[in-house]
Amino acid sequence: MSNSKTFKHLMMRSLMPGLMLGTLMLGACESRVDSRGNLPDPELLASIEPGEASRDDVSLLLGSPSSVAVFENETWFYISQRTETFAFFEPEVMERQVVIVQFDQAGILKTVETLGLEDGQDILPVERETPTLGNEPTMFQQFFGNLGRFN
Predict the structure, then answer these.
(1) Rounded distance, CA 30 to CA 70, Å?
(2) How far apart are CA 53 and CA 37, in angstroms?
(3) Per residue in 72-128, pLDDT tens?
(4) What are the boundaries of each domain within the chain?
(5) How many CA atoms lie within 13 A of 128 on its CB side?
């Protein structure tokens, strides 16, 4: 075997694991799409008429709501969203839809409203902490306090 063939052979053997690893890593970086929630069929949604459909009619056509208003049963929410995740990054919301179905006191459909991702608002949580009574145990108190508690 000549020196140039040996060099090429050794070069290919040393590059092969790196190429295989690179191919696997690129395949692992493919984005992942995830759909969640209950998205009613737009044709079925258009078929329900305010003033005519009852709660039972809406439930039969659209299925169970994702959520019901806390203080009253007159408002149902059908919530769905589609996210895309790339590698190890946080998922990005690509599409969100909220269908709000409201009934009157007699259980007859009053309004149907559809909200999209553009209708959402970002909120900033409050960063302050609520003080609690008592003391904060040290590491030694936690360690020795737990001795004998486990069987």
Answers:
(1) 40
(2) 23
(3) 779 999 999 989 988 788 888 888 999 999 999 999 999 999 999 888 888 888 888
(4) 1-26, 31-120
(5) 3
